[in-house]
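Q: Please design a sequence for this.
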């Protein structure tokens, strides 16, 4: 096992070594299979080395980012580190982020026992503050952050999704971590909906604690489990306190609420609802739902049982009425 601290200490010199001009071109970073992970077009640097490594200037450029950095790393324990990186990420390829940029500043202070990082991107109001404990040994962290608005709306099912006022806190390690997140979400023309999410994990399984999605026309609570071991698998229990389908169904009368509960499992191309029950407030309508949808096999196995089904809702002479059915 490599002793990084011992290796860093060997860089100390009894005199000062100045490296006034370092120029490198076409650097390729490869993974374990020798496939390119990153191609750097040019590196320009000016350094000095004595009892510390002083980065007086470091410029890195590639097709996807530009970075300017200065910093100082002490070469004896606890290896005090102070650095500032001004950079710009460029999103290439296709899609909604094509030709977008993300400028940011990353500052570090502290040492290699406890390292403080501050990440700021002004255009979107993104700020992340983190303390990394023992980064070279068994890393742990305390982190908090906020995002005023998403740099670019996401598009899902033809609907734009904007993030507004996201905040989060997290702590732990790779083996045992916890996260609390809250954010406003705009989906298409729908008013802002508030998401509050709690999660814990350690390994491939993420446990979702009591969480909620609440706003005009929607009030949901959910909890469950996400397994990322192979293919993404989710198990969720959803409580529908209130749901107004009129925001998504043109013929549904505004202000008529659904309530109920759903168990949802998504695994290996299959969506399974082993149990679900919904009601319409102020009516006798109640439905029990079960479904097993295999997308890869183009197969649907589902059942729907109902009581007191009528349409339109809450009318003396509905066009359709069924006391019970399946």
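A: Design:
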């Amino acid at each position: 096992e490599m002793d990084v601290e011992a290796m860093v200490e060997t860089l100390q010199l009894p005199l000062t070594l100045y490296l006034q001009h370092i120029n490198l071109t076409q650097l390729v970073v490869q993974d374990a299979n020798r496939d390119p992970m990153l191609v750097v077009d040019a590196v320009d640097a000016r350094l000095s080395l004595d009892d510390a490594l002083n980065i007086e200037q470091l410029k890195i450029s590639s097709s996807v980012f530009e970075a300017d950095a200065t910093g100082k790393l002490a070469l004896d324990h606890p290896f005090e580190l102070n650095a500032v990186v001004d950079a710009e990420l460029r999103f290439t390829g296709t899609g909604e982020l094509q030709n977008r940029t993300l400028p940011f500043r990353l500052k570090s202070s502290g040492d290699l026992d406890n390292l403080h990082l501050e990440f700021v991107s002004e255009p979107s109001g993104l700020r992340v503050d983190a303390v990394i404990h023992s980064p070279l040994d068994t890393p742990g962290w305390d982190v908090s952050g906020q995002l005023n608005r998403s740099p670019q709306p996401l598009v899902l099912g033809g609907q734009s999704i904007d993030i507004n006022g996201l905040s989060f806190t997290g702590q732990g390690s790779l083996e045992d971590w916890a996260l609390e997140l809250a954010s406003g979400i705009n989906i298409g023309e729908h008013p802002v909906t508030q998401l509050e999410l709690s999660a814990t994990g350690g390994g491939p399984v993420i446990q979702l604690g009591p969480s909620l999605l609440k706003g005009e026309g929607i009030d949901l609570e959910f909890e469950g489990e996400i397994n990322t071991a192979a293919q993404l698998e989710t198990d969720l229990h959803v409580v529908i306190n209130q749901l107004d389908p009129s925001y998504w169904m043109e013929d549904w009368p505004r202000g008529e609420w659904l309530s109920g509960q759903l168990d949802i499992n998504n695994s290996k191309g299959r969506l399974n609802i082993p149990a679900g029950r919904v009601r319409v407030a102020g009516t006798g309508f109640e439905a029990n739902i079960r479904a097993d949808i295999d997308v890869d096999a183009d197969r649907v196995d589902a059942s729907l049982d109902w009581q007191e089904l009528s349409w339109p809702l809450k009318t003396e002479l509905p066009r359709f009425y069924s006391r019970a059915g399946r």
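Q: Thanks. Anything notable?
A: The radius of gyration is 27 Å. The mean pLDDT is 89.
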